[in-house]
Amino acid sequence: MNTFDSISTRSKHGFFLPLLRLFSIALFLLWLSPAIFASTSEKNHPTLIIGDDLHYPPYSYLDENGEATGFNVELARAIGRAMNLEVEIRLDEWTRIRQALEDGEIHAISGMFRSPERESLYLFSSHHSITAGDLFAPSGTRINQLREVEGATVAVQEADIVAEYLEAQDLDLTFIEVYNVKDALRLVEEGHADYAGVLKMPGMYLIDAYEIDLIPQNLSLNTNQYAMAVMPDNRDILLMLNGGMEILKATGEYQELYDQWLGIYEEPDPREFFYRYRWIIMAVLALISGLATLVILMRHLIRRKTEELLSVNTEMEAAMEELIAMEQELRDQLDQLRKSQEKLHSSEEKNKAILAALPDIMFLFNDAGYFLDCHCSDEESLLYSPDDFLGKQIQEIFPGTLSGQTLHSIQLALETKELQLFDYELMLNGETYTFEMRLTPLNEKEVIGLARNITSGRRHQAQVEYLSYHDQLTGLFNRRFIEEELHRLDTPYNLPICVIMADVNGLKMVNDSFGYTVGDTMLKTTATILREHCHQDEIIARIGGDEFVILAPGMTNESAEKLVKGIQHHCRYTEIETIELSISFGWDTKESEEKDIHEVFKNAENYMHKKKIFERPSMRSKTIHAIIKTLHEKNPREEEHSQRVSDLCIKTAQVMNFSDHQLNEIRTVGLLHDIGKISIDESILNKPGKLTDEEYLAIKRHPQIGFNILSAVSDMKEIAEYVLAHHERWDGTGYPRGLKGESIPLQARIIAIADAYDAMIGERSYRQSLSPDEAAMELLAHAGTQFDPELTELFIHEVLNIEW
Fold first, then answer.
1. Short-list 584, 563, 562, 581, CA closest to 571
2. pLDDT at position 313, please?
3. Is position 305 within any domain?
4. N or C: which end of the chain has fewer CB within 10 A?
5. Which residue range forms the structural domain that includes residue 551?
């Protein structure tokens, strides 16, 4: 049942149906209770972990106090109260929340759009709202249908359903993926994208909240149901969510939440307006009816009295009729004259308004080419004052070629009775402007000319044509251009034709570690190097995120190898954020007409991928060392801390009789456990005082970032798991996955103790260091909650050799 169904049911049947509905839900939940609460019989209030998007207002977001809020969040909490459940809300980037649901870290997502693809992955509750996506564009932009944005650059939220819908359209769009709706809108506002393809309601909310100068296009993209989602093996949780939803709808609490968060963004319902003001409307109608009755009655009385008077004197009646007829005739003539004057005045005003609104300059010419009249909304746009050219011939005002063309077009317009159109250019203040002249006959001797400045339109057209064939980031050609050039160059005259494929190694790791700005610098540097080493007739393009291609007519395989060696030599002396630039190449050459150019392209790509397999591990290893070096340069204290933690981990592992392989492994983990801090702002890492809630959330992301960096290296996947878990707690309240007890890897539990101990005895500007005995007491006080109790005892007595 949707919102309006709920309202109409209550208004028609009072409270009988809601009470009956509550009774039915209660019976239904009693029937389900053995299955639902079997695993939580020892707890009065089982905890349900529900996640959602961190940046999706008004559905889910953090308020100014850093608290989770929004329609989805408050609805989840209300369901928890209705079902007697403890609800824990977790907000994070959308892609991470979906991954958390699939990994079992959370039980449900409070808001996800349904689609056939998603229904194959998740189970969905009954929907709690219906909405659609839209395109947001700068003010003044108006789109009537989606096909008009073909070839444009669109900013979208990563993994969002609107992005999925747009990607499925055959529109040749260029997508810029960001983590949240706000960043997508900002990219359009700052001119980095043409449109933002996002959900309409969050877009409207953010535009209002942050005063973003964009407007929706009202295209209603992919209207869909918005519901809660669980994994297929959590069907019992889905039943609880649906049951709680029904209780909220029956009690009216759902409607209150909906009106509070979403009602203000909906179009007003006329039915509700008439229902609310029905008594006033009825009173006005009654008053109008009474006045109409009074008028009819008075007319009747007047007519009756008139008939009585007319019956007294027949001659007076005839005279009266004649006077009435004359009066009516005069009145009709007066009305006709008044209407004619009004039409004339309206026509004059309309013509004035049209002329004032037009950006054109209007001229009136006669058949001999004389200026008879001129009108424009802004006289500053005229080259001369009207007094200087009215009454003069075109040859006296316009340059020679333009005057001849204009006079010829005037004569053609009068002879053919058809519109004549031509463009011309004028040099004004050292800059060339383009104008369009339209000439149409007014009568047998006169022609109206409309001159319009079309310079900006022509420049915009040229810019659009440029962007349709060029990569926005590097300025190189794009895939569309390359596909057309393959057909153009595939001729016997251009043989041999060499195709060189290039792929930048380690771009994803650089983006994860240093941010997309550094990754973009790496791509732009690559483009610069390729330009420096290629000749003018060789075509360079960026055809993917990290892929480039060079089309070289007349180049052999030997020349291609020489070119590649020169580029790679240049790369060895090029660093971006201390990381050596590394590019993998592959090439093939079409030497005969029989060989398919697309097969050559594919061979070059396959060769490049084979070389990348051998070059990638070395690049990733170098990148990790560069990341560690950069982190230590940002915060020298981190280097000393990592070394001490590594030493403490080794001592603990030796007491526990770890193998040599395990000792080397835990030494590496200790050195790399904080590698994820590379992406955290230096001001936060070196902040002398207490961190804010927002800064603490940024710090809490470093285990996940470290995992992303290390898991990209095949022989560090286990180490990546230990780094990911080193801030988990023994009681299950740690992060990022909330692991508990022995489900936390042993190596991660060892790191947690060593990391905490070194932090307590180390120097901090915002607090005094603890002595080893005091730090040991703190460890012992948190054994069994934060730390493994057995490992804590072993660490204190056998590693620190402290006895009390």
1. 581
2. 61
3. no
4. C
5. 470-612
